[in-house]
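Run folding on both entries below.
>entry_1
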Amino acid sequence: MDKTIIKKIFLRNNLGKIDKIEKIKIGFTNIIYLIDNRYILKICKDANNENNFEKEVYFYNLFKNKLPVPNLIVYDNSKKIYNKFFMIYPKIQGDNLYAKWHLMDNLERKKIIKELCGYIKNINNTTYNDYVKKFKIDHPLNWHNKIVTSIQNSLKKIKKNKLITSEFIKEIETFVDKYSYVLMEQKMVLVYWDGHFDNILVKNNRIVGILDFERTELSSLDFYLDIVKRMVGRPKKYMSAEIEKFGRKKDYIKLLEWHQEYYPKLFEFKNLNKRLDLYALEHDLKDLIGWPDVKEIKQVIAKTINYKKFIF
């Protein structure tokens, strides 16, 4: 993005002249700049993601007095100054939790999870009627059908592009047919399901920021555990390259245990393990489509469905 456009954006919004513009190397669907170490400029790169971008703005405004979310000072979807949606908010002074987790002891980590669970409860307990109306969400939503349909749609693409063997695909289909009934139980709430530690900011071992609400959706309560379980099993997945060296599996092994202690309702589902398997499968099949040559993704899927013929 041309720096003159960024300067124009700030002048037009009465934020004055700016000097330092630094592109932040995070995110896949948006472009993010740190401006004068004071402001975050977030730009919706992909037009197909504009609805999710609008959702993030909605949730930042909804939760601004309840959670440590960014305080938006500019949101522009007019495309008059620049042909992309964008938002501006003051930078939250803190570090992402991945960068600090390895420096904490288990008592400090446990306190962070207790605090985080409090915020997650707050999100889950927020009424969603306005959200459903504003974004034209199908409601009441059939959770079982939503997850199974997503899996089936991914399998169609995988079959078409021959990303794995037909036998492997058949094993996945058999697994889904056998266990999808467990998803008939549902407790529908707003779920912030992108809560990996790159989106949690901390300072002095306290949470000072919660970011990226684009994927907050109406979901079954336990769906939040999908991201938690993935951090336990694959702690480096969401880490930036410079933090990966600190991603020790032993530091994340108790995440589910601590969540269960501080938010037991997340775990009050029959056949929870199989539910989490189906959530993992739904996620990993999408990953396979995006990164078909990554062997680890196929290994993870095979492990989820106990497909032992796949060569590890």
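>entry_2
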Amino acid sequence: MDTTDRGAGRRRRFSAAFKRRVVEETLDGSESVSVVARRHDLNTNLLFNWRRQYQRGLLPAVSEEAALLPIRLIAGEPRAPSKASGGGAELELVLAQGHRVAVRGLSDPAMLQAALKALVG
């Protein structure tokens, strides 16, 4: 389950992705909201509330949540900043699919995010 259990007597917290997934199960009409709620151990009124939020566009899209990518740190000799990087930080990412992304100097985080999204798919 895509939740964070807060312990006995405390409220559970659900990710937006989990909420969207459960709500979308109720929208195809093959099962009642109460059946879907029971399957996920949810209160039916809570699921109806999520449906209203979904229909009003108040549940963030899954792509708006931060995605975590696995990384592996490789020990190596520290390198002096190159002149091309303007003396700034240097980062090289090797993705699981074999793609390499090198970032030198200051870079635009939105542009880097878009490039990574395009590579990861």
